[in-house]
Write a structure and sequence with these properties.
Layout lengths: L1 H15 L19 H19 L10 E7 L8 H10 L17 E5 L2 E11 L7 E13 L2 E6 L5
Parallel strand pairs: 1-5
Antiparallel strand pairs: 2-3, 3-4, 4-5
């Protein structure tokens, strides 16, 4: 009976192998939509990532985020002033703004006033810390009047 279990485990192993999470070659193509409002919302979030989160230009944050946006990340406070303070307290300096994101993007999904960005997230394997694996990270945003008013991500304390 043990040999059958061993053979079954060996034969089924590929069924349990994880496909790595990757980004698409041209994430800008994900911004397009027949619905111009959804396209504008996706472009807003793409540019928020590119100019503020990636290039660290807090001077441009007002262009994308409402002063009183709600933050559902348990490690961050609500509002634009709190985000600016976070960057200022860590002396995070602005970098050059690239025309395209450096971060790989898997998908940008928009529906109504919501936009979700999915991207590869590399993690250390808890069973073998010498190995890494990928999973999907995400950020979701609610947009009102052309600015982010709410944010979610998978962060834990």
């Amino acid at each position: 009976m043990k040999i059958y279990t061993l053979v079954a485990t060996f034969l089924c192993a590929p069924l349990f192998a994880q496909a790595p999470v990757t980004g698409v070659p041209d994430p800008e193509s994900l911004l397009k939509s027949p619905d111009k409002k959804l396209e504008a919302n996706k472009t807003l979030i793409y540019n928020l990532f590119r100019e503020v989160l990636e290039a660290r230009h807090m001077d441009l944050a007002d262009k994308y985020l409402s002063d009183d946006f709600i933050q559902h990340n348990p490690n961050a406070a609500n509002g634009l002033p709190a985000l600016k303070k976070y960057f200022a307290d860590r002396n995070i300096q602005p970098q050059p703004i690239n025309t395209k994101l450096k971060r790989p993007i898997t998908a940008i999904i928009a529906e109504g006033d919501l936009v979700m960005v999915l991207y590869p997230s590399e993690r250390t394997d808890p069973k073998d810390p010498s190995k890494k694996y990928t999973t999907t990270g995400f950020d979701a945003y609610r947009i009102r009047n052309g600015k982010v008013v709410e944010h979610w991500d998978p962060a834990t304390r």
